[in-house]
């Protein structure tokens, strides 16, 4: 296996990773960044980003990530395709294997691997994968023009996906397990006031049916404390929007994580318990999970990496 030495390795290409690359690039550290499974991260599968400061008219997620990438490249960041497949953080230089075929020996590592969409865990989700089941409305919504779809979840993502799909599909059902939405007030209002969206409170999806793709969902509606009603709802597409799982698996032997898998860092900093290894963005943030907070923590991680290299005479 080939080996390459770098001063700073950044893993992941969302707002945290690119911001870390901009800062370490400007500090002349010559960072190497591996993009991971989804170059540009989660924002590339969202539509309009309205809450990133500096864009009064909003900006598309893809454009924002392209701009961040270009900005990082301008300062010398070496941005590469590739997925970190295993890690040895037992001693410095830390050894990260890329695509099972190359080892990067890094003096500092910035983990900005983000989080991945969760599924309910129904067998039918796998059975109908790519045949009516999706965790990304902006990727797959196009296929459901003038059709009927369901979105599962009651948070901001679910509401955003429902509103997006309602612009394409003729009917959207939002399947919410609680009697209320968890989303922000503005998103709740958009969903509740949309003529094409019907919210099914206290409903759970328990299975899907269909011959050559999804034709409907088996639902259970809670009625009072102990009663429930089971019924089938014809739909053409089934979208999951029930949250995300942090992509921290390969680091778990070396770093502390919480019960969900979020990497635990020293309060208010991106420092993990391994000196010189930092975690930034959604992989370490169970609370805010915003593009701007991810970018902010990527900046902090870069500054920490520079200080660590300097303090250890590694610059
Ligand atoms: P959330 O964790 O906020 O919401 C997840 C939703 O899925 C909840 O309604 C939850 O129900 C439901 N859920 C979870 N598991 C299941 C299950 N097994 N069966 C049925 N329902 C389930 O995740 P989001 O992805 O919506 O948002 C993550 C963060 O990102 C939030 O902080 C959000 O505000 C933010 N965000 C902001 C946006 C913006 O500002 N433009 C856009 C998108 C996200 P329950 O409520 O019962 O737990």
From TrEMBL:
GO terms for cellular component: cytoplasm. Its cofactor is FAD. It comes from the Bacteria. One of its GO terms (molecular function) is thioredoxin-disulfide reductase (NADPH) activity. Gene3D superfamilies: FAD/NAD(P)-binding domain (3.50.50.60). The keyword Iron does not apply. One of its GO terms (biological process) is removal of superoxide radicals. It catalyses: [thioredoxin]-dithiol + NADP(+) = [thioredoxin]-disulfide + NADPH + H(+). Keywords: Disulfide bond, FAD, Flavoprotein, NADP, Oxidoreductase, Redox-active center. Binds 1 FAD per subunit. Its EC number is 1.8.1.9. Residues 7-298 form the FAD/NAD(P)-binding domain. InterPro entries: FAD/NAD-bd_sf, FAD/NAD-binding_dom, Ferredoxin-NADP_redctase_2, Pyr_nucl-diS_OxRdtase_2_AS, Thioredox_Rdtase. Belongs to the class-II pyridine nucleotide-disulfide oxidoreductase family. Homodimer. This is Thioredoxin reductase. It comes from Phocaeicola vulgatus CL09T03C04.
């Amino acid at each position: 296996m080939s080996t390459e030495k770098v001063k700073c390795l950044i893993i992941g290409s969302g707002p945290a990773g690119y911001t870390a690359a901009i800062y370490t690039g400007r500090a002349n550290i010559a960072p190497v960044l591996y993009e991971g499974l989804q170059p540009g991260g989660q924002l590339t599968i969202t539509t309009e980003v309205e809450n990133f400061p500096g864009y009064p008219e909003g900006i598309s997620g893809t454009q924002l990530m392209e701009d961040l990438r270009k900005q990082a490249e301008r300062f010398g960041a070496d941005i590469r395709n590739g997925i970190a497949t295993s890690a040895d953080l037992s001693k410095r230089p830390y050894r990260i294997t890329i695509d099972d075929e190359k080892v990067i020996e890094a003096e500092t590592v910035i983990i900005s691997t983000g989080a991945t969409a969760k599924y309910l865990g129904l067998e039918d989700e796998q059975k109908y994968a790519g045949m009516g089941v999706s965790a990304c409305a902006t990727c797959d919504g196009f296929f459901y023009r003038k059709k009927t779809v369901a979105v599962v979840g009651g948070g901001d993502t679910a509401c955003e996906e429902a509103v997006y799909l309602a612009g394409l599909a003729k009917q959207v059902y939002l399947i919410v397990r609680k009697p209320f939405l968890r989303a922000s007030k503005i998103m709740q209002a958009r969903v509740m006031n949309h003529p094409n969206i019907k919210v099914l409170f206290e409903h759970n999806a328990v299975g899907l049916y269909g011959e050559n793709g999804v034709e409907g969902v088996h639902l259970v509606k809670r009625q009072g404390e102990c009663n429930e009603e089971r019924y089938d709802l014809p739909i053409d597409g089934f979208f999951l929007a029930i949250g995300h799982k942090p992509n921290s698996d390969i680091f778990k032997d070396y770093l502390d994580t919480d019960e969900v898998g979020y990497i635990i860092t020293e309060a208010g900093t991106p420092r993990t318990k391994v000196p010189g290894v930092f975690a930034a963005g959604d992989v370490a943030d169970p609370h805010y999970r915003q593009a701007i907070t991810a970018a902010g923590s990527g900046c902090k991680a870069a500054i920490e990496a520079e200080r660590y290299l300097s303090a250890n005479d590694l610059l």
